[in-house]
Every structure is written in structure tokens, then in C-alpha cells.
Task: inverse folding
């Protein structure tokens, strides 16, 4: 007798006390030490339900087929319903009814084996040992699957973190060349997330906007330094090249396999559209502009205004808010500007906090370290 099986908890149900006693003795003499027996089907079901919910569930059930009140089939049906889909508790049907119909009915209704009375001890011992071995293998397989699932979840989280890290660094790389923009992409991401939250975009979209908005200017990788870093107004020809960053961004992000990249593509392609249709690249107007593009337009322009650029000094927050408000319904979506003003009114120090919160996360330092070791 293997120790694992000797430890098995076995429930015996038979309306004849002499049968429970006899079967109990056969199993005890075979080395099984944890046997519970009853002659009452309702009591058996109650014990089974209580045990399966606790730390020491039954490993096997032997039940009589013909009993007054509740038949063995009713008992099996109840026990099967109470057993979780991932678990396997074998049930042995015991009966003096030796007809093929009785056997078939028992086996099709959830019993795993069928033993006829009078009992033959060697047969009972073998069959019960076989069923307990099956239960053990089943549990080992389930535990193995559980471990694999945990492993897959861990790997998925790692992959997701790696993916986000790469995207973050891609955004940082695009920004790295423009020394004055600092943590512009991160602030645009943070403010865009706050605007999306104010506009009740839903938890998933808010998080996607927060991350995807950081890639809005990733296409600046394709803009030459002499234009990107020019300390003054651009000529018409230079501005045409600068505007190309939108198309480069869309091409870089096209056909992405994730919702995040798909949203980043939409943002890259629409963050320079204007509510009145005077923006680029497509001259879309009003709600023809994707909402995420409307949101990032507000966050991008506001952050650009309150920070220094090669071609301009930083504006005060008050000056910038005044200008943004003037552009409500012209450059910017009225409802996004309303959300922007709500966000600022709800937390007047927000912008200051945002500027300072990101001081420690210097993306240029991260990229420089990655490049130069
Ligand atoms: Fe841009």
C-alpha cells in the first residue's frame, strides 16, 4: 500500500449498516486509515459538501445504488454538481443489482466504477487503488497546469513591461535630439490621461491615452536637426518638412499588433489637426478628428507654451491658459478645453506638480546611458 493512498479520505454510504461495516473493514485491512461511513444519504451529501470546501476533502466515495428516499444516482448527481470542474473525485457504485441496465445507468450518471455485492475484497481493493491513482494523477496534472498558468502570466507581465519600456525609450529617443523639450512627452502623456479621465473615457482608454500620447511626436526622428533645432521661425519649406513628422510617425506605428500602438498611430496622425479644419495633415474639422487627437492637441500645445523652445521663451501658466481658452472652438475642441479648465480648476497646482514630478525622470539621461553605457 502506497502511503499517498493510505492517507486517502473515503466516504462510504449504504443504507444497510452491516454493509458499511463490512466495506469499512475491507478497506481498513487494506491499509486505508481515514474512512467515514453513514447509512443516511442526506448526511453523506452534507459531509461531502462540508469536506470539499475545507482543507481535507474526500478523495473517493462508495455509495449504494438502491436506498430508500434518495437513490445512489441522486447522490452521485449531487456530488458531481458540487465538484468543481477542475477536480476529480471518483465515485464507486455498490449494488446487489447485477443487471446491465443498472450498471450502465450508474456509469452514465457520473459513477466511475460499479461493484456488485456480495463484496469480493481483492476486487474492491484493486479497483479503489486504481481510482485513487487516477485521482492522484489528475491532481498532479491540475497542479502542473496551474504552475504553467502562473508561469505564462508572469512571462506575459514581463513581456508587457518590456514592450512598454521599449515604447517609452522610443518616445525618449525621438525627443532626445531636441535638448530643450526635456520631459515633454511624459508631461503630454500625463496631461492627456487626466483629460481623458475628465471626459469619462473609461479606465482602459485613459491608461492607453496616457501611454500612447507619449509617442505623439515619434516621427520627429525623421526631421533633420537643422530644422528641428533651428533657433527661430521656420521658412515655409522648412515647415513643410517639419509637418512630415506626422506622416513619419504614422508610418512608424502603422499595423501595430496592440491597442496601444494602434492608438499611438491615431494620435501621431491627428494631434496637429485643428477643430476649425485649419490643421494638418488632413485638415479634419470638429469631431471628424479622433477624440484622442483632440485631447493630445490640447496637452501638446499647452505644454509647449509653458516651456522654452529654440524659437520661443516659456509662457507663464496664466498666459498659456488664456491663449488656450481663446482658441476654444478654433484650434481646440470646446469640450476638451472645458475638460482642461475643469482639471486645472480642480487642482490649481497640478501643472507645477507635473513639472516637478518628472524632474527625476530625465529621459535624456536614460537614453544617453543606454547609448554610451
Ligand atoms: Fe507634433
Result:
Amino acid at each position: 500500500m502506497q502511503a499517498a493512498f493510505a492517507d486517502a479520505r473515503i466516504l462510504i454510504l449504504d443504507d444497510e449498516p452491516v454493509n458499511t461495516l463490512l466495506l469499512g473493514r475491507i478497506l481498513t485491512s487494506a491499509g486505508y486509515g481515514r474512512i467515514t461511513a453513514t447509512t443516511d444519504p442526506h448526511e453523506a451529501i452534507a459531509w461531502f459538501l462540508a469536506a470539499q470546501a475545507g482543507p481535507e476533502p474526500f478523495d473517493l466515495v462508495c455509495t449504494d445504488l438502491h436506498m430508500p428516499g434518495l437513490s445512489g444516482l441522486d447522490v452521485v448527481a449531487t456530488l458531481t454538481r458540487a465538484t468543481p470542474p477542475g477536480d476529480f473525485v471518483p465515485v464507486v457504485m455498490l449494488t446487489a443489482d447485477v443487471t446491465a441496465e443498472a450498471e450502465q445507468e450508474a456509469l452514465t450518471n457520473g459513477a466511475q466504477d460499479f461493484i456488485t455485492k456480495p463484496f469480493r475484497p481483492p476486487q474492491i481493493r484493486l479497483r479503489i487503488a486504481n481510482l485513487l491513482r487516477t485521482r492522484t494523477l489528475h491532481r498532479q496534472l491540475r497542479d502542473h497546469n496551474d504552475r504553467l498558468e502562473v508561469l505564462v502570466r508572469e512571462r506575459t507581465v514581463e513581456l508587457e513591461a518590456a514592450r512598454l519600456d521599449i515604447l517609452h525609450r522610443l518616445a525618449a529617443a525621438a525627443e532626445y535630439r531636441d535638448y530643450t523639450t526635456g520631459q515633454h512627452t511624459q508631461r503630454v502623456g500625463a496631461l492627456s490621461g487626466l483629460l481623458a479621465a475628465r471626459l469619462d473615457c473609461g479606465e482602459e482608454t485613459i491608461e492607453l491615452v496616457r501611454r500612447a500620447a507619449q509617442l505623439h511626436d515619434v516621427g520627429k526622428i525623421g526631421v533633420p536637426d537643422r530644422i528641428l533645432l533651428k533657433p527661430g521661425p521656420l521658412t515655409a519649406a522648412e515647415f513643410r518638412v517639419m509637418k512630415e513628422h506626422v506622416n513619419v510617425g504614422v508610418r512608424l506605428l502603422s499595423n501595430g499588433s496592440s491597442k496601444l500602438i494602434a492608438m499611438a498611430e491615431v494620435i501621431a496622425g491627428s494631434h496637429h489637426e485643428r477643430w476649425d479644419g485649419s490643421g494638418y495633415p488632413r485638415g479634419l474639422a470638429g469631431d471628424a478628428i479622433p477624440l484622442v487627437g483632440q485631447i493630445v492637441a490640447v496637452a501638446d500645445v499647452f505644454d509647449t507654451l509653458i516651456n522654452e523652445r529654440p524659437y520661443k521663451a516659456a509662457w507663464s501658466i496664466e498666459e498659456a491658459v488664456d491663449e488656450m481658452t481663446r482658441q476654444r472652438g478654433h484650434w481646440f475642441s470646446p469640450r476638451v478645453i472645458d475638460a482642461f479648465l475643469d482639471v486645472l480648476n480642480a487642482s490649481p497646482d497640478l501643472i507645477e506638480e507635473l513639472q516637478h514630478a518628472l524632474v527625476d525622470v530625465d529621459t535624456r539621461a536614460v537614453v544617453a546611458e543606454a547609448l554610451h553605457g
Remarks:
- DSSP finds 16 helices and five strands in the chain.
- The pocket of fe (ii) ion is lined by residues 216-217, 245, 271-272 (CB under 6 Å).
- The chain has two domains: 3-147, 177-372.
- The chain has a mean pLDDT of 87.
